[in-house]
Amino acid sequence: MNKEVILRELQFKAIRSSGPGGQHANKVSSKVELTFDLNDSEGLSDTEKERLLRRLDSKLSKEGNILLQCDESRSQHKNKDLVIERFFGLLEVALTVRKKRKATKPSKSATEKRLKGKKIASLKKANRSKPEF
Predict the structure, then answer these.
(1) Which residue of 67, 71, 95, 98 has the fewest C-beta atoms within 10 A of its own C-beta?
(2) Where are the domains of the chain?
């Protein structure tokens, strides 16, 4: 993953934020929308693209674009920095390769301990019943 190339491929759009805020919110476009075309990216290898397509399937549009928005701050520049940070965090999490799980067997002592506990529980319940004469 080449961050400099990807950073140049990002497209930004400034939008007016929703919600309360009075005159400032009505006049200033402080909300930032980030768009990234995953399929046409030159900053990602083919294997990275495949992994991202699988992992970020729910976050992709029909065209294969990643859309992120940020309107946390009143400043457009701060929102732009926040959405870029969030975007690269999302990519890093999606590109991490999970360790393959090794199948293990419980130890002999653990199995014996479990069976002993079951036997004690069954005896306890058997002793609760009425005696037969």
Answers:
(1) 98
(2) 3-95
Q: Which helix (H) or strand (E) holds 31?
A: strand 31-37
Other CB atoms within a 10 A radius of the CB of residue 86 amount to: 14
Pairwise CA distance, residues 95 & 55, whole Å: 8
Q: pTM value? A: 0.70
Give the residue among 95, 84, 72, 96 at the shortest CA–CA distance from 35.
84
SS (H, E, C) 40-55: CCCCCCHHHHHHHHHH
Query: Domain 3-95 belongs to what architecture?
Result: 2-Layer Sandwich (3.30)
Of 131, 25, 1, give the one whose Cα is nearest residue 75.
25
Question: Are 39 and 60 contacting, i.e. CB atoms less than 8 angstroms apart?
Answer: no
Angle between helices 46-55 and 76-95 (to 10 degrees): 100
Q: What is the pLDDT of residues 96-133, one digit of tens each?
A: 988 999 999 999 999 999 999 999 999 999 999 888 87
